[in-house]
Amino acid sequence: MSQIEELRAFVLIVETGSLTQAADRMGIAVSAVSRRLRDLELRLGTALIQRSTRRLFLNETGQLFYQRAKTVLSTLEDAEQEVQNAGGALSGVLRISVPLSFGIAHMSTAIAQFMHAHPEIHIEMDLSDKRVDMIAEGFDAAIRIGNLTDSSLIAKKISSVSVLPVAAPSLISQWPQLTHPNDLAKMPVLAYANDRSPHDWHYVGPDGKAGSLNITPRMSANNGDVLRDLAIAGLGMVSLPTFLHYEAINKGLLQPLFPDYDWSGFDIFVVYPKTTILPKRTRVFVDFISGLYGRSPYWEVIDRTALAG
Fold first, then answer.
1. pTM (2 decimals)?
2. Confidence of residue 199 (pLDDT cuts 50, 70, 90)
3. Average pLDDT of 281-308?
4. SS in 3 state form for 1-28?
5. Residue 77 pLDDT greater than 80, yes or no
6. Does 307 have pLDDT greater than 60?
7. Is the pLDDT of residue 121 over 90?
8. Are 186 and 175 in contact (CB under 8 A)?
9. Which CATH architecture has domain 161-265+302-308?
10. CB burial class (10 A; 0-12, 13-18, 19+) of residue 255?
11. Least confident of 24-28, 135-139, 147-151, 251-255
12. pLDDT-above-90 percentage for the chain
């Protein structure tokens, strides 16, 4: 058995915490991964991983060896990449995780540009609002919106997005006495279920005073596209990031509610795992996507007549 394959199996077992997940990543049987780990420990003459009925964990020797093994594999991958790229073209597989609605609305053109520039890179893009375990599931990069909680990842801000409550003009016309955000509590509401606090909408007024609106949803869903379309149909107001409804606002299908108030917002990041040597194709993608949208992205460009209502 190749010593390199033994090292790969060992590193993946450590990073995924599971023989089964390591086997899935390598595309081989669990028994083969177990055998590679056993052969490695026999060759070294010491145990690296302690096993219990529920989990695997590194002993002190295993921790030291893991760092060295990771460096060896990263150096080897970088050397292979340099040789492959000697002719100028980047190659290999790039696995990317992207939030569903953002990916559908705003990543197709970006990925097309990247693929035209790097035709030898094979893209695997997962579109889901589920926050994947990048290391365990083998992703090279991911787009994340909002708060970041995983300290094992490196994050680079690529843009930002504001949040704006909206409703169809036909619905707003039924509520002529809207003079303060608190008045919105009377209206039917569509809520995004994945929000941390879907029943509380926070705002800061033009005078700098903060407040919050407690709402009772008529409907909730975990997809912003569905909620936007239901709002266009006049079934309720909804608070969404502008990248989801800026076009509907500019077409007059939706009207912002109290746009002079600050309804918070989020930063958008590209994240990637911490590693000794980042594969060049990942680094090039991170640099590409970081410079694409800018500080004033197109989804923040809203017709002033729409804001005026």
1. 0.71
2. confident
3. 82
4. CCHHHHHHHHHHHHHHCCHHHHHHHHCC
5. no
6. no
7. yes
8. yes
9. 3-Layer(aba) Sandwich (3.40)
10. buried
11. 147-151
12. 42
Asked if residues 96 and 125 have their Cβ atoms less than 8 Å apart, the reply is: yes
The closest of 40, 30, 28, 41 to 2, measured between CA atoms, is 40
Contact present, 102 and 240 (Cβ < 8 Å): no
* Residues 258/259/264/265 CA torsion (nearest 10 deg): 140
Give the separation between CA 277 and CA 247, rounded to whole angstroms. Answer: 41
Cβ proximity of 279 and 184 under 8 Å? no
- 161-265+302-308: same fold as 90-158+267-300? yes
Q: DSSP letters of the chain?
A: --HHHHHHHHHHHHHHS-HHHHHHHHTS-HHHHHHHHHHHHHHHTS--EEE-SS-EEE-HHHHHHHHHHHHHHHHHHHHHHHHHGGGS---EEEEEEE-HHHHHHHTHHHHHHHHHH-TTEEEEEEE-SS---HHHHT-SEEEEES----TTEEEEEEEEEEEEEEE-HHHHTT-TT--SGGGGGGS-EEEETTSSSTTEEEEE-TTS-EEEEE---SEEES-HHHHHHHHHTTS-EEEEEHHHHHHHHHTTSSEESSTTSB--EEEEEEEEE--SS--HHHHHHHHHHHTTS-SS-GGG---HHHHH-
pLDDT at 87 over 60: no
Q: How confident is the model at residue 47 (pLDDT cuts 50, 70, 90)?
A: confident
Domain limits of the chain? 3-86, 90-158+267-300, 161-265+302-308
CATH architecture of 3-86: Orthogonal Bundle (1.10)
Pick the CATH number of 90-158+267-300 from 3.40.50.410, 3.40.50.2300, 3.40.190.10, 3.30.420.10: 3.40.190.10
Q: Residue 157, Cβ neighbours under 10 Å: how many?
A: 11
